[in-house]
Amino acid sequence: MNKPCPRKPLDLTTLLKCFTIDLIQADWRLVVQKLRSQYQPELPPCLQGTTVRVELGDATTALDPADAHTINRAFPLTYGQPLAHFLRATAQVPDAQIITEHPTIRVGLVFCGRQSPSGHNVIWGLHDALKIHNSKSTLLGFLGGSEGLFAQKTLEITDDVLSTYKNQGGYDLLGRTKDQIRTMEQVNAALTACKDLKLDGLIIVGGVTSNTDAAQLAETFAAANCATKVVGVPVTLNGDLKNQFVETDVGFDTICKVNSQLISNVCTDALSAEKYYYFIRLMGRKASHVALECTLQSHPNMVILGEEVAASKLTLFDLTKQICDAVQARAEQDKNHGVILLPEGLIESIPEVYALLKEIHSLLRQGVLTDSISSQLSPWASALFNFLPDFIRKQLLLDPESDDSAQLSQIETEKLLAHLVETEINKRQKQGKYKGKKFNAVCHFFGYQARGSLPSKFDCDYAYVLGHICYHILAAGLNGYMATVTNLKNPVNKWRCGAAPITVGF
Amino acid sequence: MNKPCPRKPLDLTTLLKCFTIDLIQADWRLVVQKLRSQYQPELPPCLQGTTVRVELGDATTALDPADAHTINRAFPLTYGQPLAHFLRATAQVPDAQIITEHPTIRVGLVFCGRQSPSGHNVIWGLHDALKIHNSKSTLLGFLGGSEGLFAQKTLEITDDVLSTYKNQGGYDLLGRTKDQIRTMEQVNAALTACKDLKLDGLIIVGGVTSNTDAAQLAETFAAANCATKVVGVPVTLNGDLKNQFVETDVGFDTICKVNSQLISNVCTDALSAEKYYYFIRLMGRKASHVALECTLQSHPNMVILGEEVAASKLTLFDLTKQICDAVQARAEQDKNHGVILLPEGLIESIPEVYALLKEIHSLLRQGVLTDSISSQLSPWASALFNFLPDFIRKQLLLDPESDDSAQLSQIETEKLLAHLVETEINKRQKQGKYKGKKFNAVCHFFGYQARGSLPSKFDCDYAYVLGHICYHILAAGLNGYMATVTNLKNPVNKWRCGAAPITVGF
Predict the structure, then answer these.
(1) Domain Phosphofructokinase spans what residues (chains A, B) (predicted)?
(2) From the list A32, A175, A447, which residue is nearest B23 (CB)?
């Protein structure tokens, strides 16, 4: 900001000009970053002030009644609990109960799963809510994710500690490690930690896997008469933790905006050079939400969605043909460039590759060395494996992740498709069917560069509000719940805050 | 902007709050983009108004007197011309001449080389300057770069045509193709185009190669008594066209800022996950300027500069050792993560790889098929080639670019180094020397995603001013000059505008 705003009041035109100049300065990114770090997220009316009413609804059931029995058996103590709604103290709801007692409590928070922009604001919101209601309450953050929880490595969260992390991306205040709290050994370590640290509440920040673990922990803790209540928070940039109570997840909005901007840059690049096809792989494992939302925001020429590929059972051959047909049709309009998006999970959605991966992972689990796997595959899997280019073969042989999926971030599906398309276009060219310019592919993986980015205002607010809700869930004495906000497409003052038993989303 | 600013004047505090809210909205990127598209770049005082004085200095000589004779012989008509300075009409410089006549002229402009943010503003600046001095003058843009020039494919630039490209990234208004205008056939096609289209001036927008071509064209046109004056404009995101008259190039500022932001995101990611080493390859061929500037802006853990590697003759082995030593030292401090930057040109700076590439390119030029190259390399080159991983071997065998360099954007040097480091760290681990966690590398190429991005304010101003200068060079009747601005680190009102014979920078 090399033209600082004058200090005395000026007319609107001058001020507008002054701000416009600041905004279009070379350093506008720094201006935004600075303003963002000073931003105080909004709270919906129901959470403002120190008095919140909680209304408990009817008992809940699983989405699919067929599952109810199974889930009920697995979660006898935490299944079927009522929905909770948080309302203003003045709300005219006869059954709603005002929580008047706010004893000193101790709460622990752990980042599980992959980092997602604005995770830090969950901590901030929870910390503010704790201190507003009882300044002696304590918030402990576990250092290094679930491993920090097991090892009881904590950092006490204070305003000082938080100061440089408010509205900032990354999980670097606490760090994170493995995703899972699942084995008996891990669950017991978590139980011991909560008992040793005398925690009244344990907040688990993460996606589908982590919230499933949270539900399991809540049940186990209840069975063990542990006083610690477990609360889950929907934070995952993949945006795939969704049900009737969870409209979106913290981080998804930011990731889609940042990636859409980069994709738009690449679209401009494609139009400028007029000679490249860009194959861009985006985050998104089982769900292609990021790829779909980025498509809506940035208008690439083509997107391949994992769900469609799986539903229509499209093979590598089908996908190659679809892309080649589009490339050929564009060439006939004298367009020899384009942008194609795909999610990292696509590779597992292609039926024959999925089956091949299953065979490979099964052999790996049996301890077969990677060098010998090719010779032990079934004949058809072996034929497919040997058809694939060398670099993909190596990547398919990587050990699966803790959730049994392939190491999707390491598998360059965009390069595989680019390779297959190039081969097919060259063939069509020789046959005289393709008459465009030489096919050139440029491949990108937009995986890690958006994950640490500055969160959007929406994610700042959403995460901060969820942090507040965590406190009210604990104050209401609920266990095995997820913090929820609905009506998110409206401004913050219309947001509805609540809590749903985690098992209801299963 | 879901909270629009009130229309009537308010006090500063309210307004500040209002703007702060706008800025930190989810859509701040759109806000910036919209404001940027409405931005009118500044002009330094010397170029304001309709009267500009030109001062011609003494005859210039080549930087290195030893080269003077050679250059003079190659450019007998355009070497040794004086420097030109553009001054305000009121400037008290006795020898400066006021250009009073502004006849109707026709000017052509061509984008050469790779797209660079704010190239469009050169067109805008030139168009404005042309129309201010004579509303009947015409600006033609060549469609599709040098090939559009040869084929005389033009688009007349008007305010309407420009409206959506002002202050925008990419070269998509005109497009571009090959870099070079060099063979006799190409030079003659350019000459014919300029004669046929009755051009008074030809503006060549590009980097080192394109401005070298501009100097050659200027000489050829002068020798052929062609009335078209040739002017070069320093536009290259690599920032490597630098001499005493050219302080930086259009696009470099934007590219460094955008990439530094992405690198900072990755640094946050590294600190959050605490388990990855990120190897990030940046643009920059012969010069590592982008990598160096991004290092200064984003503070990664390590940067490898091509110039240092070449000067110290560091081998692949040396580089691997340097990185491994750093990884090991960090592990001893319990840090198992980091960010390492390198320029795409690094691979050609490593002495033994450079020699290998020379051999490969020589064999390719002799028509040897890629499959047979390995067997025809000299014994030491063959040994190195076979030592390298398969993916790099394939990439080294790609046809060289038009300027004889390797296809640097396609050679994944970051993956090669990550591979070599991983191998060495694993070895040290077995030997008990390395006691850190398992080494995990994530590789990125930040090549194309920044190229089409919104230009920084600096680049908007710089390109627009250079466009104006192009007009004044033509109005002064100069041929074979490059538009220059010095004193760039000061605000625009202190910028000094001039023109230097292109050959002076050789």
Answers:
(1) 107-471
(2) A32
The reply to whether A252-446 shares the fold of A53-248+455-505 is yes
Whether the per-residue pLDDT at A132 is higher than 70: the answer is: yes
Mean pLDDT value across chain A: 90
**Nearest-angstrom CA–CA distance, B287 and B345:** 7
Question: What is the average pLDDT across B443-470?
Answer: 94
Residue B21, pLDDT > 50, answer no
> What's the rounded mean pLDDT across residues A355-361?
96
User: Does A20 sit within 8 Å of B35, measured CB to CB?
Assistant: yes
Q: Is the ipTM of this complex over 0.95?
A: no
Q: Report pLDDT for A64.
A: 77
Helices A12-23 and A28-37: crossing angle, nearest 10°?
A: 110
Q: Do B175 and A23 touch (CB under 8 A)?
A: no
Task: Spell out the domain ranges in chain A.
Answer: 53-248+455-505, 252-446
- CATH numeric code, B253-446: 3.40.50.460
CA distance A295 to chain B (A): 16
Q: Which of B24, B35, B175 sits opposite A35 (nearest CB)?
A: B24
Closest partner CB to B266 (pick from A264, A268, A452): A452
Q: Which fold has domain A53-248+455-505?
A: Rossmann fold (3.40.50)
CA dist., res. B466 & res. B460, Å (int) = 10
Q: In the CATH scheme, what is the code of domain B45-251+455-505?
A: 3.40.50.450
Choose which CATH entry (3.40.630.30, 3.90.1200.10, 3.40.50.460, 3.60.150.10) describes domain A252-446: 3.40.50.460
Bridge partner residues of A499 (DSSP)? A84, A483
Predicted confidence at residue A466, as pLDDT, reads 98
**Residues of chain B positioned with their CB less than 8 A from the CB of A169:** 265, 268
Cα separation of the two ends of chain B: 51
Query: Which ranges constitute the DSSP H helices of B312-456?
Result: 316-332, 346-349, 351-365, 370-376, 379-387, 390-396, 413-430
